[in-house]
From TrEMBL:
<dbReference type="Pfam" id="PF00652">
    <property type="entry name" value="Ricin_B_lectin"/>
</dbReference>
<dbReference type="GO" id="GO:0030246">
    <property type="term" value="F:carbohydrate binding"/>
</dbReference>
<dbReference type="InterPro" id="IPR006311">
    <property type="entry name" value="TAT_signal"/>
</dbReference>
<keyword id="KW-0732">Signal</keyword>
<keyword id="KW-0430">Lectin</keyword>
<protein>
    <submittedName>
        <fullName>Ricin-type beta-trefoil lectin domain-containing protein</fullName>
    </submittedName>
</protein>
<dbReference type="InterPro" id="IPR042517">
    <property type="entry name" value="Glyco_hydro_64_N_2"/>
</dbReference>
<dbReference type="InterPro" id="IPR035992">
    <property type="entry name" value="Ricin_B-like_lectins"/>
</dbReference>
<dbReference type="Pfam" id="PF16483">
    <property type="entry name" value="Glyco_hydro_64"/>
</dbReference>
<feature type="domain" description="GH64">
    <location>
        <begin position="32"/>
        <end position="393"/>
    </location>
</feature>
<dbReference type="InterPro" id="IPR037176">
    <property type="entry name" value="Osmotin/thaumatin-like_sf"/>
</dbReference>
<feature type="signal peptide">
    <location>
        <begin position="1"/>
        <end position="23"/>
    </location>
</feature>
<dbReference type="InterPro" id="IPR000772">
    <property type="entry name" value="Ricin_B_lectin"/>
</dbReference>
<dbReference type="InterPro" id="IPR032477">
    <property type="entry name" value="Glyco_hydro_64"/>
</dbReference>
<dbReference type="InterPro" id="IPR037398">
    <property type="entry name" value="Glyco_hydro_64_fam"/>
</dbReference>
Amino acid sequence: MRTRTKWLSALAAVAATASAVIAMNPAQAIGPDLLPLNVTNNSGRSEAVHLYVLGTDIRNGRLGYVNQAGAFTPWSPGGNPPTPAPDVSIAGPGQGGTTTLRVPRFISGRVYMSFGEKLKFFLTPDGLVQPAPWAGGDPNSGILFDWSEFTYNDAGLWLNSSQVDMFAVPHAVTVTGASGVTKKTGELKSGGRDAVINGIRGQAGWGGSIMSRSDGTVLRVLAPGKAADVGNFDRNYLDPYITQAWNSYTGRTLTVQPFGDRPDVKYFGRTSGNTMNFTNSAGQQVASFAKPSTANVWGCDGALQAPNDQVVGPIARTLCAALHRTTLDRITTQPGGGPADFYQGAITNHYSRLVHQNMVDGKAYGFAFDDVQAQESLVHDGDPRSAGIVLTPFSGGSTPPPTGSSSSIVSDWHGKCIDVPNWNFADGQRLIVWNCTGGTNQRFEWVNGTLRTENNKCVDVAWGSTANGAAVQIATCSGNPAQQFVLSGAGDLVNPQANKCVDIAEWNPNNDAVLHMWDCVGGANQKWHRG
């Protein structure tokens, strides 16, 4: 049996247990005592990456951190108010590089990864205060970061990406077993991050979930419960659906079969007033649930609290998953249906829908009990030899071409090339499109995420702007994020800092049409390929 508990984060004392799937049955130790965890940076971003391995020694419950070599150190007691934790960051890989961490056996916790700025942790006498960027005053709210969750014990490794609280840094997780087979999940489709962000932005009432930095960088999309907590989303959004689904069982029976490997275990629910009562196959009442609020559903808590038992917890998990996926009213045996049946109707968890929809394998942790029916982005191996976290492109599924790969950049729309007009390579020269001639003013080389002319000037977003309409020019290469570009598998030429696409302005089909930055909308005037 596997259970999953959530780490809690708040600007208050928190003594947390790890948010990962834990094997309950003891087993003989297999796998190395220090498991290699390779973090690879294919993000296309130029900022420094900072890594943290934090967790709990599951043998004694002590909270601590792990250094790069794999040594676990318990935290020292903190104070009230919380005191800053020591800097336990590990330098992460640069673009295209890999950093190897070591994870000791019997640790359950998180691997955090941040871009550009180190995270800020705090200690109290009771435990560790972790980043909670949805909370007012959290000092990490302006930092681009995310985490993966793990447990490593004698029964193997469980490693998952998580979108339970937020969707931020695209990354996949992997594990390689003794057989040499590598399992992978959590990878976004080409352009998937943009698709999730734009999908949320286009969903009426959901746009407040998107958190951006003052420079325009989209930092994260908050899960609906977190967005509601800070007043950016309707706190009662699901109430009409919950009432409809709950009341549908006043005159019919809901059958819950919570264990896939034990189909004989069934519980039967009927609603009386606002309470759904469950009996077992012998007719004995075994559980009762008050009608949950929207917040209870988002958190899978409160009226849907799931204790770690064999009856109430499994029923609660099943109900919560069905309410997130809006199947409870339509399918009378739960868990029921499949991905094609989930998230139907105008009122549903569009956040989880969009995240799942944009994953290569459809798997994600869109809410706390998304592992019901195995929809979670989890890899497990009982005899692991190594694991991995791959930071993937923010604006597509491909990495920049290797250094030395000189080519033209051609519009998919009309076949014209990005061009330095009149071979004027002065700083500030705006770029245009022109009939492809093969000239040196139309040749560009990819170097460490920059796009360079043959005389070593960089394609640049003027003044580092993140606004629509910002000019695309050439300038002396400076290492500025305004000079970083990713050509995605979907053909979008994206500056990750602005999270916008190189666009032929005003859909001008003529030679001399200027280039500027614009929201990525998938238009043909934003699609490019190497010539």
